Amino acid sequence: MRCTHILGTTYEFNNPYDIPTDRPLIIVPNHQSMHDIPPIVWFMRKHQPKFVSKKELGKGIPSVSYNLRHGGSVLIDRNDSRQALSEIAKLGRYIEKHKRSAVIFPEGTRSRTGHPKPFKATGLKLLMKNAPSALVVPISINNSWKMLKYGKFPNGIGNHITFQVHEPIEVNSNFDSVLAETEQKVNSGITSFKST
128-165: per-residue pLDDT in tens? Predict the structure, then answer.
């Protein structure tokens, strides 16, 4: 994050809620770029977030790959659904037992234009099933896609990246209703694509 300040990037993380640290959390943001991740790690650090990440990120990225492999996150193979579901279920059991938080991007991949993609239900439902005492925390991210709109180089200049935390949602037995409410809250706060 500090490195991107050189490009005139600023970050705003709005969290008006007193989210408990003695319960597991399932943090559910939209996904616009790799610049979504460090602010979530930093601003949600007291909840010790662990990520559901594609296995390709587990090597080749200084610091990030090491932390994904050894920090409690799970690396999933998107071409092997059995392995992916097993790892997500394992993460759900882990956060339930240790009162940590899991971060999952239900769109499945990043939006290159900022426009939200439909949520894929399976991973989020599996986390809820394996962490029944969790709170779901929806987050809307804006403008981080503009950092990579030209590709990896050059990065975008002068972007104001915002994170809006919405009111947490209790997990209940009706996973479909929780999923729908979460998606509605996340999408309600996504505005950056409208100005392009």
Answer: 999 999 999 999 999 988 888 776 677 777 789 999 99
pLDDT tens, position by position, 129-139: 999 999 999 99
**Nearest-5° angle of CA 160, CA 38, CA 65?**
140
Is residue 64 one of the residues assigned to a domain?
Answer: yes
How many domains in the chain?
Answer: 1
The answer to the question of residue 192 being in a domain is no
**65 domain residue, yes or no:** yes
pTM of the complete model beyond 0.70: yes
Please list the helix, strand and coil fractions of the chain in percent, rounded to the nearest 5, in that order. 40, 20, 40
* Domain, as residue range, for 65: 24-142
Of the candidates 71, 67, 62, the residue with the CA atom closest to the CA atom of residue 91 = 71
| H or E, element range at 127 | helix 121-130
Reported confidence tier of residue 87, pLDDT bands at 50, 70, 90: very high
In a domain, 177, yes or no: no
165 burial class (0-12, 13-18, 19+ CB within 10 angstroms)? buried
Q: Residue 162 and residue 173: Cα distance in Å, rounded? A: 32
DSSP 158: S
